[in-house]
Amino acid sequence: MSVMKKQLVYLLTGWLMCGMGLQARAQVEPLFTYKISRDEACNRWVESQMKQMNLREKIGQLFIYTIAPDRSKRNLALLKNVVHTQSGRIAFLGRKTR
To answer: What does the domain layout of the chain look like in residue ranges?
Structure first.
């Protein structure tokens, strides 16, 4: 690549990077979380719950187990295992099956 082409590539790259920085917008907090984050009673409750949790339970809050909402033996065994051995949340995804 010639020197002139290299200089042009550097110039365009720098221009694009600077331009992207100028176009960056401030992140907007959703209204739902905005209201909750400013609710003192809610914050006190969350803090009290966190103080009662051990490290494993706190880490478990970062995970969501997804389980299909059917009543097969396999799913019921999985659900029972997750409830008794894991920390975190459970989400039932999909439609109820017959």
So the answer is: 64-98
